[in-house]
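The data are quoted verbatim here:
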Amino acid sequence: MIKLDQVPCPLAQCDGQGLLLSVNVALCQLTGQPAAQLMQLRLEQLLPPAGRIFLHTHLWPMLLRDGELREIYLKLLGPHGELIPVLANCQQTGSAERPQYCWVFFVAQERSAFEAELLDARQRVEAANLALADNERFLNTIANALPSLVAYVDRQLHYRFANQVYHDWFGCTSEAIIGSAILASPLFANEEAAIQAVLTGQAQQFERSLATGQHALRHTLVNLTPDCDLLGEVIGFFVLVSDVSALKLAQADLQLAASVYEAASEGIVVTDAQLQIISVNPAFTRITGWPAPAAQGCSMSALNPPDAPDHHPALLEAIQQHGQWAGESWYLRRDGRPFLAWQTVAALPGHESAAPRLVWMLNDITERWQKDERIRHLAFHDPLTNLPNRALTMERLEQLIISAQRQPKHIALLYLDLDGFKQINDQFGHDAGDWVLQQVALRLVAQTRSADTVARFGGDEFIVLLNHPMDALASSQIAERMIAAVNQALDWGGQALQVGVSIGIAQFPIHAVRAAELLQAADQAMYAAKTAGKNTFRFARASDATAL
């Protein structure tokens, strides 16, 4: 049995997940990594980012469909990160339940040498067994079975051999090709320089695009290998033409996909079924601050804030049922700042034996969310003091009343109107008046609990909702503290400003059981406090409650 290290070209075997199971010496030399280290890697880690995308989006699906790949152009990572062009061939082995894949890589220069040795060996066998018809038939069978165009040209530049693929390609018979001049072939038009070079012993390689006999445009990779006699004189050359049209199309698709991947404004992430990150695009790095090397191997779940709900189980269930999922999620940037992302996640089509892949598209919508939150906030808050406005206050009062009806408790509504505020506005201007309102708001909030609500109703009027005060005495004590706090002088650029406050207090369910009536009762009590001399408080009267 031939051992892997006896094969002169790089060779590797991997399982259905892409994990390397065995490698030969040639692959170790090409990548600059020992076998033990290589067999801890996946095949994709031998490729640059664009190659990994091509592997996951094109090669694995082709392998799962056809069981083999032929003449696929790739680039492997060299010992120092350089890109080494290779032509890859792969054949599925093993059982259907546990498939394995054998990869053979032909480096351009090494391939030419390998093919030259193969053809040279064929020439020696033919010369030694010219009289044996069976051997000639055998060799012709091999040449005709090759997927590439194979021909031999003598030093006088006439065809001496062409395989069946060569005939089929140009739609002509063997008689029409053998003996004809190579320069008359459309494949070698304008390639005299390359032909003259191979006649001096220099192997040549070039690409050509031409129309075949069926007028279909085909792309080829042409190798010319000199054939020398025992004295080292060139007596002809071998022609090996590989049809790389499918590869060109795949390369175009890959370049387009890579361009979209690189230039996309959305963050793109490829993960496995366990949500481990395989690759990310530059936009993901711009959004999150995580460069590709640092992100690879991390879990998408690890990027969620600790207190954020884990939506990934529902995500995976939706993908399993529908193939995709879309929604909002909170993530952490590398510096720890949270951001909100709108994301769509889709499963790449695959096969049971292939490791599934998920593609994530992320848009940072934090700024839009903040604007929406700001708009919602302004709709229910006073822009000057940032306190709840009339709409939000009445909504909270309604909720308190509903709660109190389910579980009986007291609610106190304090209606506050500043005394002497108009004089400050008239004497010092509206800037001073606005500043005074802000300071009064801060002082009122400082006298309440987190369960209570302090709101600005408009102008110099404020509302305070006390959630379940112990009794009327507790409400009056809070009112007294508020009066004392508001009465403290304010320093406006060295000028002492002072206002008072008149407070009306209405209690649920003593004075009213509906929100509007409770507010009206507190308003009437506030006017009673002003009538009593201002800067004091009054409770709503029982007669006021009866009148309501």
Q: What stands out?
A: The CA atoms of residues 422 and 433 lie 8 Å apart. The chain has a mean pLDDT of 83. The first helix runs from residue 25 to 31. The two ends are 105 Å apart (CA to CA).
